[in-house]
Amino acid sequence: MGTSERSLRRWRAENGAVLEDQRPLVKPAVQKHALTEAEEAAILAFCNQEEYQSLPPSQIVPLLADKGVYLASESTFYRVLKKHEQLNHRGHAKTPRKATPPTSFTATGPNQVWTWDISYCPSLVRGQYWYLYLILDIYSRKIVAWEVHEEESGVLARQLVERALLRERCTQKPPVLHSDNGAPMKSYVLKARLAELGMLMSYNRPRVSNDNPYSESMFRTVKYCPAWPTKGFASLTTLREWMLAFEYGYNEQHLHSGINFVTPAARHRGCDQAVLTKRAQVYEEAKRQNPRRWSGKTRNWAVAAAVSLNPCKLEEMERNKIAFS
């Protein structure tokens, strides 16, 4: 019934019978300082004057005060206008609306949350591009899989995801796959296959590219690499060979700042703990040999914590958190 036990006891008489609800019979108390009908009419009259009809109460009240007139507070003006259904949106701007919070997932280990996207790669011919498909693990920042094709296609995206799952050996426990709202990402071919695999699909909010930050940052890293050809690639084969070399350098050699300067491959394999522990020992030994050079603790070489996609408020993260055993 949605009623507390205390309310039931209050409603019952001494003989156990339920008393009649007395609330509708009680007359509402009239506040001594409440506005009179004449005062409400005066507020409405001022607000509907040509001089003030396009202004909000936040401007009407100061303007009246400049003329030595005080009718009521700003909040009272708003309350009276709302009571008489005159508090409406004005102007050509759209009515403000509450923004939908972004999708949020938390990864505590590799192969729990993947993001992917497609980016243009220019050729030497103006107007001709190839398309780089790339899947990234947000926990380790590792490039899980990539391919370069001549077109954007849901079929090619489906094949890439299948190969990534086989490569990472997680077909029995697929990760969350997040992307934007592009046509290949929301194609029926891809969505049907992901549903068969039991893979949870997640998407950006409409027209909000910031909801896929890890993939966007990855493409920036690719295209701002010093070896990136500024004039474009000579052929599709050349581009694929370049990406093959970049993947190895990024995964196996690049020290990523987001994971405390270990390589994505080391964090993905779980080797980052040993690397960071060794660094901490080196720093402690250096401090022991020259303690006067250290005013406080040594650098924090702890393993990077769990990674969240679009982290929001703590209670919302707990509701959206994916449980991985």
Order of helices and strands: HHHHEEEEHEHEHHHHEH
Multimeric status of the protein: single chain
Q: What is the second-level CATH architecture of the domain at 105-236? A: 2-Layer Sandwich
Q: What is the name of the CATH topology of the domain at 105-236?
A: Nucleotidyltransferase, domain 5
CATH class of the domain at 105-236: Alpha Beta
State the major sheet. Answer: 5 strands, mixed
Number of E strands = 7
Low-confidence segments, ≥5 residues, pLDDT <50?
A: 321-325
Q: Roughly how much helix do the residues carry, as a percent range?
A: 25-40%
Overall mean pLDDT stands at: 89
Widest beta sheet: strand line-up: 4-3-2-5-6
Rg over CA atoms, rounded to whole Å, is 31 Å
Q: Class by helix and strand content?
A: alpha/beta
Distance between the termini: 38 Å
CATH homologous superfamily of the domain at 105-236? Ribonuclease H-like superfamily/Ribonuclease H
Strand content: 5-15%
**Alpha plus pi helix count:** 11
Question: Can you offer a commentary on this structure?
Answer:
- The chain has helices at 5-11, 37-47, 57-66, 74-83, 154-168, 188-197, 213-223, 236-253, 264-269, 272-289, 314-320; strands at residues 105-107, 113-122, 129-137, 143-149, 176-179, 201-203, 307-309.
- By secondary structure, it is of the alpha/beta class.
- Among the domains are: 34-88; 105-236, Ribonuclease H-like superfamily/Ribonuclease H (Nucleotidyltransferase, domain 5, 2-Layer Sandwich), CATH 3.30.420.
- Helix 6 (188-197) links the parallel strand 5 (176-179) and strand 6.
- The longest helix has 18 residues, at 236-253.
- The radius of gyration is 31 Å and the shape is elongated.
- Residues 321-325 have low confidence and may be disordered.
